[in-house]
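--- STAGE predict ---
source: upstream dedup step, 1 unique chain passed
mode: sequence only
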Amino acid sequence: MKSVARFWKDEQGVTSLEYGLIAAAICTAIVAVMAQLSGGLTTVFTRIAGNLK
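--- STAGE serialize ---
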């Protein structure tokens, strides 16, 4: 019973798991923002290329 209680109180791997979840959330947010911006950026670069011709 003591080994189960000791295992339950052990928080050694929790920090790395939290950092992994935060990194995954940040990556998801970056992908979502880039997906929204990609159409606008394509339009801008197309206009710039057209003006340079």
